[in-house]
Amino acid sequence: MCGIIGIVGKEQVADRLVDGLRRMEYRGYDSAGVCTVEGGQLIRRRAEGKLGNLVIELARNPAQGLIGIAHTRWATHGAPTTSNAHPHATEQVALVHNGIIENFKPLREALTARGRKFESETDTEVVAHLVSEQVEAGLSPQDAVKAVLPQLRGAFALAIAFRAHDDMLIGARLGSPLVVGYGEGETYLGSDALALAPLTQRITYLEEGDWVVITREGAQIFDTDNNEVTRPIVASGATAAAIEKGNYRHFMQKEIFEQPVVVAQTLRSYLRRVEQTVALPQIDFDLASINRVTIVACGTSFYAAMVAKYWFEQFARLPVDIDVASEFRYRDPVLEEGGLSLFISQSGETADTLAALRHCKAAGQTIAVVVNVPTSTMAREADLLLPTHAGPEIGVASTKAFTCQLAVLAALAAHLAVKRGRMNRAEEAAIVEHLVEVPAALNAALAHDEEIAAMAHLIAPARDVLYLGRGADYPLALEGALKLKEISYIHAEGYASGEMKHGPIALIDELVPVIVLAPSGPLFEKTVSNMQEVRARGGKVVLISDAEGIAEAGEGCLATIEMPKVHPLIAPLVYAVPVQLLAYHVAVAKGTDVDQPRNLAKSVTVE
Ligand code: HGA
């Protein structure tokens, strides 16, 4: 959320700043802005809405300069208007911010009382005024920033430009990510390595509380106590190639179709095919000694956690608690000694999940993370890093990251089971075989794309949709409902199918389509009974099942979607595909912005 970039360059920067924003647009698209420094002037250009509007504004009013900062916004404080767009500026200072300044109100009141005039409703603008006050009082930019940072509560990644200094920028981070990039006679700041990928592969990840002065010669980094520190320079590995949609209409569609390949890629690093065993990265603690697992995540990653709970309990007989990250810390959870805390996040930067991770670390838990960005903050703070290999996920609605998370979690469940003596060699080999089948099963599920596209018009006019599932397919019902809400704006709810009769069945009528996820198997008959309860009340059912399930219960349904017959372990991965495709095609039928749905953004770096 909110992407920031800064360049101290030897050539013009405006176009390169915009290119950096383009690579971060998935983080927010409420507004965008740049500010360059030239001839003792701050040259600021901002535009409401998508980045294209800023490009038009810059074509009309170019911003010259060899140094500048830029921002793409996901609004937290203040409407998505031009006046709330970053950079926020005074006569002396301009800055961009990712995060929330939680104490902005008292700061703003105090600044107003001192005669400062505000032009936006944002929390961010107070920082511009605070730094400006110090500069106007005669402090150097470094001393000004040093004086202001301790006054800020909340989370921030900042890039600050100074009217009178066309050779340096200052960056700072607390809670939100910020990297420094090193070029040839140029230095950069960015929210992530991907933003800087065309400029440099040489990156320093700033640590919590760090602030940095960048010049053409390099970077000087200071910690929270203002001691100069050295942080390692690493190769970012982020690809400089433009992130393209290829032949697909949307990133989401491309990412749905990438799943067989990226899940195979992910599984390859967790399975030993020849030995038929599950292999985890080397760790220096004994997984057999783990007595309890706490899994914390948000959104789609939380539904992956729900599936994992079924697997960890079933295979490893390990007690598992799962929690939504934004709630976790506030209920003061009981964390027993010897526990493993597992965090799941596509970006590895999700603010709520990161705060929960730090809470557990402080409580002495062993920390494991399943993340798609191996250089992310969570990856760096974990004892056990379990990367997914989904590649960059650009569509705001998560798809391939989810199935890759499930692949890793299934392997982890089997590994824990083996370590705890709950799974013998033959059972482990059988699990490996089932997992190896996943990519082919995903391909078979994707083969129903056209059929799902054709039936999407049955769902598109609905105002409400229900999704039902049982066992490990219940989280998939929740995920299906979330996908539909996110990109088609249709109200949808997921329910454990047995829960219907305890309330939501009151909603059923002929206008509420009910999507039932029911692979044939041990839970099939019970789910079908719940489906009949819906049908008996005039409900219109879309049954997603395999050939056997459809033969048994498909008659009289509004539509059926046939999945390959798979082992129950891998059903959640396979059944993710039809719910993703259904949401996608309904959104396309409704003409919504699939890749950049309203009010949302990716990489949620605010709490
Ligand atoms: N609070 C600032 C920045 C928002 C942000 O970082 N979102 O992820 C604003 O509302 O502009």
TrEMBL record:
<comment type="function">
    <text>Catalyzes the first step in hexosamine metabolism, converting fructose-6P into glucosamine-6P using glutamine as a nitrogen source.</text>
</comment>
<dbReference type="GO" id="GO:0006002">
    <property type="term" value="P:fructose 6-phosphate metabolic process"/>
</dbReference>
<dbReference type="InterPro" id="IPR017932">
    <property type="entry name" value="GATase_2_dom"/>
</dbReference>
<dbReference type="GO" id="GO:0006047">
    <property type="term" value="P:UDP-N-acetylglucosamine metabolic process"/>
</dbReference>
<dbReference type="Pfam" id="PF13522">
    <property type="entry name" value="GATase_6"/>
</dbReference>
<keyword id="KW-0963">Cytoplasm</keyword>
<feature type="domain" description="Glutamine amidotransferase type-2">
    <location>
        <begin position="2"/>
        <end position="217"/>
    </location>
</feature>
<dbReference type="GO" id="GO:0004360">
    <property type="term" value="F:glutamine-fructose-6-phosphate transaminase (isomerizing) activity"/>
</dbReference>
<dbReference type="GO" id="GO:0006487">
    <property type="term" value="P:protein N-linked glycosylation"/>
</dbReference>
<dbReference type="GO" id="GO:0097367">
    <property type="term" value="F:carbohydrate derivative binding"/>
</dbReference>
<feature type="active site" description="For Fru-6P isomerization activity">
    <location>
        <position position="602"/>
    </location>
</feature>
<dbReference type="InterPro" id="IPR001347">
    <property type="entry name" value="SIS_dom"/>
</dbReference>
<dbReference type="InterPro" id="IPR035490">
    <property type="entry name" value="GlmS/FrlB_SIS"/>
</dbReference>
<dbReference type="Pfam" id="PF01380">
    <property type="entry name" value="SIS"/>
</dbReference>
<dbReference type="GO" id="GO:0046349">
    <property type="term" value="P:amino sugar biosynthetic process"/>
</dbReference>
<dbReference type="GO" id="GO:0005829">
    <property type="term" value="C:cytosol"/>
</dbReference>
<dbReference type="InterPro" id="IPR005855">
    <property type="entry name" value="GFAT"/>
</dbReference>
<feature type="active site" description="Nucleophile; for GATase activity">
    <location>
        <position position="2"/>
    </location>
</feature>
<keyword id="KW-0677">Repeat</keyword>
<dbReference type="GO" id="GO:0005975">
    <property type="term" value="P:carbohydrate metabolic process"/>
</dbReference>
<protein>
    <recommendedName>
        <fullName>Glutamine--fructose-6-phosphate aminotransferase [isomerizing]</fullName>
        <ecNumber>2.6.1.16</ecNumber>
    </recommendedName>
</protein>
<keyword id="KW-0315">Glutamine amidotransferase</keyword>
<dbReference type="InterPro" id="IPR047084">
    <property type="entry name" value="GFAT_N"/>
</dbReference>
<dbReference type="InterPro" id="IPR035466">
    <property type="entry name" value="GlmS/AgaS_SIS"/>
</dbReference>
<comment type="subunit">
    <text>Homodimer.</text>
</comment>
<keyword id="KW-0808">Transferase</keyword>
<feature type="domain" description="SIS">
    <location>
        <begin position="283"/>
        <end position="422"/>
    </location>
</feature>
<feature type="domain" description="SIS">
    <location>
        <begin position="455"/>
        <end position="597"/>
    </location>
</feature>
<keyword id="KW-0032">Aminotransferase</keyword>
<dbReference type="InterPro" id="IPR029055">
    <property type="entry name" value="Ntn_hydrolases_N"/>
</dbReference>
<dbReference type="InterPro" id="IPR046348">
    <property type="entry name" value="SIS_dom_sf"/>
</dbReference>
